[in-house]
Amino acid sequence: MVSLQFITHQTERYSYLESARMALEGGCKWIQLRMKEAPLEEVEAVALQLKPLCKEHEAILVLDDHVELARKLEVDGVHLGKKDMPIDQARQILGEAFIIGGTANTFEDVVQHYRAGADYLGIGPFRFTTTKKNLSPVLGLKGYSSILSQMKEANIEIPVVAIGGITYEDIPAILHTGVNGIALSGTILGADNPVEETHRILNHA
Ligand SMILES: Cc1ncc(COP(=O)(O)OP(=O)(O)O)c(N)n1
Ligand SMILES: Cc1ncsc1CCOP(=O)(O)O
Ligand SMILES: [Mg+2]
Predict the structure, then answer these.
(1) What pLDDT sits at residue 51?
(2) What is the pLDDT of residues 55-111, one digit of tens each?
(3) What span, in angstroms and rounded, lies between the C-alpha atoms of 145 and 83?
(4) Which end of the chain is more exposed for a tag (fewer CB within 10 A), N or C?
(5) Ligand 2 atom at shortest distance from the alpha carbon of 163
(6) Measuring from atom 1 of ligand 2, which residue has the nearest CA?
(7) How many Å lie between the centroid of ligand 2 and the Cα of residue 49?
(8) Which residues are within 8 A (CB) of 77 and not within 5 positions of it... i.e. 6 or more apart?
């Protein structure tokens, strides 16, 4: 089964919570609650509803950006980018029991997050996507191959998920570069049936 992290997004059709619920119903075991620009109280309200849902589906729940809220709500972890709290500082607050993911766009980012004690890396973007503003340069397959071979040479072992504009058709080639999993949002939420699309992606041959 493909290792899949679903990233929530609000669309004209679905709320953040509905988006996560559909991914869970499709079998996804790893949800990132990402509510860009939403006030903290709103993130907290959705997280409080999502936490028991994830538990019911035996899925991991990580929050995008919000370290203190992750600690307060005792979710499973956080995902942090370059403009967020540094990973070593988040580790001091959260301790070892929480999962901390970091965003990397270059091998240098990988080294920095690895040394800071990240548990996994979201490397991207694979291609252009409208789900995130101010995107870093797209990596394409060559970008992943290059970063992963540099990681191998440097003996850096840490799980990697690819992210950014990924669709069902991209999955075999992306996994072939050596990444461990994928993080998706738009391709699931844009499908006619997001529950079935999640299931189809997870069971990709
Ligand atoms: C799995 C994963 N990878 C990368 C990101 C991007 O995080 P960040 O750079 O902090 O950007 P925002 O998501 O906060 O806009 C991610 N969220 N998840
Ligand atoms: C959060 C994030 N970080 C880099 S690309 C991206 C968005 C991923 O969503 P999509 O799968 O819709 O491109
Ligand atoms: Mg962030």
Answers:
(1) 98
(2) 999 999 999 999 999 999 999 999 999 999 999 999 999 999 999 999 999 999 999
(3) 25
(4) C
(5) 5
(6) 132
(7) 23
(8) 60, 61, 62, 63, 70, 94, 98, 99, 100, 101, 119
